[in-house]
Design goal:
This protein is an alpha/beta fold. The protein has 23 helices and 14 strands. Helix 10 crosses helix 11. The mean pLDDT is 88.
Length: 562
């Protein structure tokens, strides 16, 4: 019975670890392999404080969480600029560093001998010195940890994390600070892993480097993948199965001399069969319930509201913008002026520098020379998400939709100033977040109706027809509330009938005061929508005027079709 209770205690600890790991791997798309290190740091901080300084639980727990969260934030710093294989290498390096420090800092960590005699947790004078006594506390702390992770994952902040997982550039383009998001999710994930580490140290009463090998991170990763990435219930199920399965296999009658090896084979085969049948995990990520909830939410007005101003007023100005890549000048001394209520076309042959110009206007590239002003505000030194918040937003030529999120979520994530993106509000003012979320769903549904996608709110963006995806790009850009909307080939590849359906949407945005600039190769679109056209070639503005004047200029036509 004691052994069974011990297994249950270990299940609760691994539930915490798998759940916290899923925040990084499943929800944020940050493939970091340092979770065993976070687990170990939490355990060692508790062991050192309890044995050397006499600090008691729960202070050891709080100290472990705080210290490990800080380490997690430091690990996030290289993750701000790198990802994929490079992030794996950096986090593996952390694992090596932590184990090396543990083994060699003898005076503090005990070196290869570890730290023994860690006092058990005492509550109301009772020592939790057995599995039977420890299980209620570990189960309670595990449940609280899962709730903390669930609250983060299902808040507007968690929605932004999933958008970042899908595409970082697109997340910045809707005004989200991916740097702050990475730092926060690393801190939360590391801190929750430290919770398990602290409980483990008090429960086992001994820690050493051998308790936290790299293999342990792979074990946790298997729990997340088996249960289902992006689903916390899956993490709980994965932890239960992978901790309990080896014990259950001990009841299988096997020849004594090969029993252990055969059990390992059966263990591996069982996992392979499960993942073969359910490659997405036992409990795959589920679509948000926002679309269903939206059916009972009254529609709000489409948030087109602008600051006071008049049609024709200059919104954004780019002066003498230049950008070179090596010896190639992509943009040279480029001037552009966009006004309210106007639709401006930016045309030119392939490679003319049109997208580079957009990147310079929106902060995705920093100009070598020149500057960008939005009204009286200089934008040149701002980051892309800050420029969106200032009032200038852009789309991308390759759409960059959040394909695994619903159409409604694509729009919801772009709405600015959501209190639920602040974790203090998410945890300590949930009623405010819930009320605002209901209002935001109404706004998002109204925007989708505005672009004729109201009936597609619950459809995954990747499942929409191509023309519907183009409309969703417009909806997402509109949701940012930006005054200046820069569209990179928003209507390319669409048939004439579809164009006739989309034109009124774009014209209505301009009529209501938006400033719109469109990169487009389809001259019928330019002629049908634009008030003014800027012709760019070889990074230089060649001409500017009405669509008809530029389209019928033989010299420009020769350049365009060269």
């Amino acid at each position: 019975m004691d052994y069974l209770l011990h297994i249950l205690v270990m299940v609760t600890l691994f539930v915490i670890l798998a759940t916290s790991f899923n925040l990084l791997i499943g929800f944020s798309g940050l493939f970091a392999l340092s979770h065993a290190a976070f687990f170990g740091i939490g355990a060692y901080v508790t062991a050192i404080l309890a044995t050397k300084y006499g600090v008691a639980f729960p202070l050891t727990l709080f100290a472990s969480v705080g210290f490990t969260a800080i380490i997690g934030m430091l690990v996030a710093l290289p993750a701000l600029r790198i990802g994929g294989d490079y992030l794996v290498i950096v986090t593996l390096a952390l694992q090596v560093i932590v184990i090396t420090v543990i083994l060699n800092w003898n005076s503090v960590t005990g070196g290869t001998d570890g730290i023994r005699g860690i006092p058990h947790i005492a509550i109301f004078g009772s020592n939790l010195d057995s599995a039977a006594k420890m299980l209620p506390l570990s189960a309670l702390v595990s449940a609280i940890s899962v709730w903390i992770a669930w609250r983060l994952a299902h808040s507007p902040f968690g929605r932004s994390l999933r958008a970042m997982r899908e595409n970082e550039a697109a997340t910045q383009a809707v005004g989200k600070d991916v740097v702050a998001m990475k730092v926060q999710v690393f801190a939360f994930s590391a801190g929750l892993a430290a919770v398990a580490g602290s409980l483990f140290a008090h429960y086992i009463s001994f820690v050493s480097a051998e308790s936290f090998p790299f293999d342990l991170t792979i074990y946790m990763l298997a729990m997340v993948i088996l249960g289902g990435t992006g689903n916390l219930a899956g993490s709980v199920l994965g932890a239960v199965l992978l901790v309990a399965l080896p014990e259950l296999l001990k009841f299988v009658a096997l020849p004594p001399d090969v029993a252990d090896k055969l059990r390992n084979v059966l263990y591996g085969l069982t996992l392979i069969l499960i993942l073969r049948a359910r490659p997405q995990g036992l409990l795959p990520e589920r679509a948000s319930a926002s679309a269903a909830a939206g059916e009972t939410v009254p529609l709000a007005a489409v948030p087109i509201g602008l600051a006071p101003g008049t049609a024709g007023q200059v919104s954004i100005t780019g002066r003498t913008l230049s950008k070179s890549f090596g010896g190639i000048a992509a943009v040279r001394n480029f001037d552009i002026e966009l006004r309210r209520g106007e639709i401006v076309g930016l045309i030119g042959p392939n490679g003319a520098g049109k997208t580079t110009a957009f990147n310079l206007l929106t902060g995705f590239l920093k100009p070598d020379n020149g500057g960008v002003n939005f009204g009286s505000r200089l934008l040149t030194r701002l980051k892309p998400h800050q420029i969106v918040r200032a009032g200038v937003a852009r789309s991308f030529q390759d759409l960059k939709l959040f394909r695994n999120m619903t159409a409604l979520e694509n729009v919801l994530v772009a709405l600015p100033r959501q209190s639920g993106e602040n974790l203090l509000y998410a945890y300590f003012a949930p009623w405010k977040v819930a009320r605002e979320e209901k209002e935001n769903i109404g706004k998002a549904l109204a925007i989708l109706r505005f672009v004729k996608l109201g009936e597609k709110a619950g459809e995954r963006a990747g499942n929409l027809a191509y023309a519907e995806q183009k409309l969703l790009v417009i909806a997402r850009l509109l949701a940012t509330g930006a005054e200046v909307l820069l569209f990179d080939e928003p209507l390319s590849g669409l048939d004439p009938n579809t164009l006739e359906e989309i034109f009124p949407v774009v014209r209505e945005l301009a009529r209501q005061g938006k400033t719109i600039c469109i990169i487009e190769h389809n001259l019928d679109v330019i002629r049908g929508l634009c008030n003014r056209v800027v012709f760019l070639d070889e990074g230089t503005k060649i001409a500017e005027g009405t669509p008809d004047a530029l389209i019928h200029d033989p010299q420009l036509a020769a350049r365009y079709f060269k």
